[in-house]
Amino acid sequence: MNKKVLGDLDESSLELVKIIEENPRISKSELLEKSDIPGDEFEEKLRELTDSGVVIRLTTTANSSMESRVPKKVFMLNPEKKSELQG
C-alpha cells in the first residue's frame, strides 16, 4: 500500500489487513478470534475496510457437506488494491 493509503489506516485496520493477507478467505469469526480488537471496534474497522474497497467480502459455500446449503461469508484483500499493499 502506498504511504498515503497506509497513512489513512490506523493500527487496528493494519492489523486486520495483515491477518486477512496471511489468511485469504477468512471468516468473520476467525478474523475476530485472531485479532486483538474489541468487538465494537472490530465491526467498525472491518466496515471501513470494506467500504473503502481495501477488503472485499465474498459469499461461498461452507467447507463441510452438512453446511453446504448455508452460504459462508469470507473476507479477502481486494486484488486491485493488493499491489498497493505490497508496495
What does this structure look like?
With about 90 residues, the chain is of the alpha+beta class. It has one domain: Arc Repressor Mutant, subunit A. The chain is built from five helices and three strands, in the order ααβααββα. It has a three-stranded antiparallel beta sheet. Helix 2 crosses helix 4. The chain is globular.
Q: In total, how many domains does the architecture comprise?
A: 1
The SSE order reads HHEHHEEH
CATH top-level class: Mainly Alpha
The CATH fourth-level homologous superfamily: Winged helix-like DNA-binding domain superfamily/Winged helix DNA-binding domain
Structural class by secondary-structure content: alpha+beta
The fold-level CATH name is Arc Repressor Mutant, subunit A
Into which percentage range does the β-strand content fall?
15-25%
Instruction: Please count the beta strands (DSSP E, at least 2 residues each).
Output: 3
- What value does the Rg take, in angstroms? 13 Å
* First-to-last CA distance: 5 Å
Characterize the quaternary organization of these chains: single chain
Could you report the average pLDDT, rounded to the nearest whole number?
82
* Order of strands, widest sheet: 1-3-2
Which outline best applies? globular
Please give the share of residues in helix: 40-55%
Count of runs of 4 or more consecutive helical residues: 5
How would you sum up the major sheet? 3 strands, antiparallel
- Provide the CATH architecture: Orthogonal Bundle
